[in-house]
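Deliverable D2.4 — example input (structure tokens):
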């Protein structure tokens, strides 16, 4: 890996950690307040998407132009992650009976590597003009 990639991995790790804490905390607070798995995950995901897009764009990958393209790609991939995340949560929490604290942690750990790879290679990649 190039030095730039190592730095991006470190910054991504920071932003992803912040997003993970946001997502995990909001999800579990809403779940505790007796909202269902899907509603809790939808609200926590929307808040995390906004936070993560802005931080990844301007802090981690520092892309300048192509804001609309990056936003559309980010939202498309976020939709895929949302479906995967919700499916994992329904399986772990609602079907198997694992606590939401553990279920959400497992889901986030599973999806995190895919998030970095797709954000670096698809959303925030350097594009030719």
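Example output (designed residues):
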């Amino acid at each position: 890996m190039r030095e730039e990639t190592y730095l991006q991995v470190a910054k991504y790790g920071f932003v992803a950690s912040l997003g993970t804490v946001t997502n995990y905390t909001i999800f579990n607070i809403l779940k505790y307040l007796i909202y269902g798995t899907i509603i809790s995950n939808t609200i926590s995901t929307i808040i995390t998407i906004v936070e993560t897009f802005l931080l990844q764009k301007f802090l981690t990958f520092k892309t300048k132009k192509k804001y609309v393209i990056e936003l559309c790609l980010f939202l498309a991939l976020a939709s895929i992650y949302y479906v995967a995340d919700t499916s994992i949560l329904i399986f772990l929490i609602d079907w198997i009976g694992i606590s939401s604290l553990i279920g959400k942690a497992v889901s986030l750990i599973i999806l995190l590597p895919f998030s970095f790879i797709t954000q670096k290679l698809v959303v925030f990649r350097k594009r030719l003009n």
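The two ends are 25 Å apart (CA to CA).
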